[in-house]
Amino acid sequence: MFVHKIDEDLSLKLIEYRDAQNIFNLINNSRAYLREWLPWLDSTTKLEAQVDYIKASLDGFSKRKSINTVILFQNQIVGIAGYNEINWSNKTVYIGYWLSEEFQGKRIMTRVAKALTNYVFTDLALNKVEIRVATSNIKSRGIPERLGFTNEGCIRQAEWLYDHYVDHVVYGVLANEWSS
Amino acid sequence: MFVHKIDEDLSLKLIEYRDAQNIFNLINNSRAYLREWLPWLDSTTKLEAQVDYIKASLDGFSKRKSINTVILFQNQIVGIAGYNEINWSNKTVYIGYWLSEEFQGKRIMTRVAKALTNYVFTDLALNKVEIRVATSNIKSRGIPERLGFTNEGCIRQAEWLYDHYVDHVVYGVLANEWSS
Amino acid sequence: MFVHKIDEDLSLKLIEYRDAQNIFNLINNSRAYLREWLPWLDSTTKLEAQVDYIKASLDGFSKRKSINTVILFQNQIVGIAGYNEINWSNKTVYIGYWLSEEFQGKRIMTRVAKALTNYVFTDLALNKVEIRVATSNIKSRGIPERLGFTNEGCIRQAEWLYDHYVDHVVYGVLANEWSS
Amino acid sequence: MFVHKIDEDLSLKLIEYRDAQNIFNLINNSRAYLREWLPWLDSTTKLEAQVDYIKASLDGFSKRKSINTVILFQNQIVGIAGYNEINWSNKTVYIGYWLSEEFQGKRIMTRVAKALTNYVFTDLALNKVEIRVATSNIKSRGIPERLGFTNEGCIRQAEWLYDHYVDHVVYGVLANEWSS
Amino acid sequence: MFVHKIDEDLSLKLIEYRDAQNIFNLINNSRAYLREWLPWLDSTTKLEAQVDYIKASLDGFSKRKSINTVILFQNQIVGIAGYNEINWSNKTVYIGYWLSEEFQGKRIMTRVAKALTNYVFTDLALNKVEIRVATSNIKSRGIPERLGFTNEGCIRQAEWLYDHYVDHVVYGVLANEWSS
Amino acid sequence: MFVHKIDEDLSLKLIEYRDAQNIFNLINNSRAYLREWLPWLDSTTKLEAQVDYIKASLDGFSKRKSINTVILFQNQIVGIAGYNEINWSNKTVYIGYWLSEEFQGKRIMTRVAKALTNYVFTDLALNKVEIRVATSNIKSRGIPERLGFTNEGCIRQAEWLYDHYVDHVVYGVLANEWSS
Fold this sequence. Notes:
Six copies of one chain form a homohexamer.
Chain A: E1 3-5, E2 10-14, H1 20-29, H2 31-35, H3 47-62, E3 67-73, E4 76-87, E5 92-99, H4 108-122, E6 128-134, H5 138-146, E7 150-161, E8 164-174
Parallel strand pairs in A: 5-6
Antiparallel strand pairs in A: 1-2, 2-3, 3-4, 4-5, 6-8, 7-8
């Protein structure tokens, strides 16, 4: 029901229970593609996993700890994006996202990340946005780089991906650096 | 953040913690006016009551029991509307609403109730919308009547208002009767 | 253990865990009969469903939201009756009930509903009792009618019964109308 | 509402929220008397303590851990009695009780303890009832002794009473010893 | 991680999740032996039961209701001991324990019970330690007896063991009797 | 009760409720000193804040999310150290610590951090330890540097300290780099 419009093609919709089947289908169509960089593909092979995810998302939203949205491109769900972890004391937030394989190449995620960052500074009144990306995930790193985020460091072996660790680059942008 | 647009002037925004002060101010400016028909004016004289209300609203939202929104008129909060009680087994829903005194007379609430009813049938896929109004609240009764709801009965002494009981008219509209 | 005596033959006992098997047997013996007007027959085909129901009943009782009793006729469980939903703010209560097929025709339910209504006004000090019955359930409608309840309206398509909707008649009686 | 009748004069009623004021008054009238053997007099000087106690009692009841009743003598609340701790694995139960000062000397508590013991063996199908009494509380010890309980031991310094410890006598009776 | 050292050979370690497999193996090697006096052998035939037990133990620890430790003999887990139930109002505590079959005969449990009792009086500042043992469990009774506990009574049919009841001897020692 | 011994002078004890007063005194004696780098000094001016902290700590411990210990130097509490956040999926952990002013200069914290790091790799079997320190907190930065941690980046404006933001250096060490 509730939508944050980005431009004519794109908007973010607060995740809802009835999105479960559509998200599940989207994942199924991109499973091999997504598995390269995301750790949860093997634990989401049933629809129930999506229902649990939505339940956890809405619980996080109601407690102001996180906000998860579905990305709507021309009214179709094409991925997930949101604030994974909101720290109200330190006024920082992590942005996380994924996009299905077939919608790559349209600059969708850059526009989404830009809109999410705008919202952090203009509406949530926080001070910093961080994005963490696996070091060798060149495509995903392009997003914070295009948006002018600063590379603040490389956190080694930060994440376990099925059978190996990956390093993370931490990108950050401060409220006083950002001009929407 | 999340908005359901009705028309150029009007939209519904999922209630958020940072709305507390604005809602509280709105209530304070209309306290005597609202108290004629609403039972909660005496228990909401402090800002904390709004925070508790928002917390309960978001909890209800995350459990799919209710949805509360603030009504935005020209980007300003002018009232509250939403689904008070969603019954997924019987596929029915109650709509509730209030509007501050100074924004009366602009057909705001009729447009809001129409949009909420549309959404019930098109997106939530429920079967019936009910609105309960105090029998002598002529202004509020006009809303379901203008929208073509059927008067289904008068529930006597249905609500305690500070020092007296009021009767309720139950209005209802079915999915197969509604043409948005 | 705890019993509310109605007359020589009849009493209401607060539901207990050790009633689970007896209630389950009772339902099994009347399953087709009860299924005509009650929505829960298909989800109570195992004993565990009764244990869950009793657990929910006792939880509702301890929170003052509802009271469920077994109807004892000559010391035998013959049905369930109680207050489904107690609204302490508005001082109203819904009465719900069912009786197994073989104990029909003894005016048991009329006596039970009368006793439950008495108790609402004399002990719980509430203001109104409501009974909602499916419009075409003539036998059940006889109960509030014999007790002098007022027909306050017909709520259309109020309940989903397996494969169709049924309308509900709302009956109500006020404290100042009732003489036990 | 729910009553377990003992004889013409006496019954046990499941504790209810609306008993709070009456129990509180009863305690206030016997405060010095009760304080000799009960540990909770100093923490129950406000009505809210009774409401909390009733809430905890009903919660224990709904979870089958304990049952607290008010003792009604000629329809008046004169004390509290019940099962403090039900152990369903070992099939044992503790009985606890107190009676206000002015109703002493009528054998009320002996009749109550007898009824509670009967109920344990006939309805709850447990195997053993225990009563623990302070060693020097001669009056209270008379109750299990009159009912034929066996003195099973003296647990030294078992309870802290404001400024000193008291020893407890443990009395017990087994199902196969009891003839109601 | 956290260890309470008793002597060169013996220590008590706060139970941890990663002990589950070792405890489970220990039980499996002594199942017939332990089953003579302990009631939980038939409900712990899967590893998950140990995980649940550890979870409950840590929850009890964090709420100050109980403390469960693994007994380490020469750095190997040989049994479980701890405070089953801490009563902060009456300043009493129950000690419970079991030791696998192959480590019997080394006075391990007497040393453990002595250490646990010391700790109750010196650090927890409680007033009394109780140990309850089945009357005919001569070996286990030797422990409180060697430590100078007083036999305070025989609680008849206190515990259900699969197919029969056993009586319990209650042993107790007071702070002012104990000299570590 | 439960202690992890580091050397003759130093050990870590799992935090307990009865430490509340001692920790509170320790903070009070170092309040101005600690306030330079820690954000919680203004919200811990009453003893209750320590009780809440201990409660949260034990809850985190029982859920395996964190472990907080008091640092004992010659049997006296001199600070707090532990694992703030354990990530079992990625096998990483953050170490956090503070030491009161008067015990500075004894290399206490370096020994503590070394012992905590050892334990992560040898017992918890995790893969990485991180320590985050404010960039200009030279003294605290010395600890991971002396222990051979790698500086992995500078997270800008990572923390709000009363009236200004501070940057954080992230130090990390991997299991395969560590030789205790």
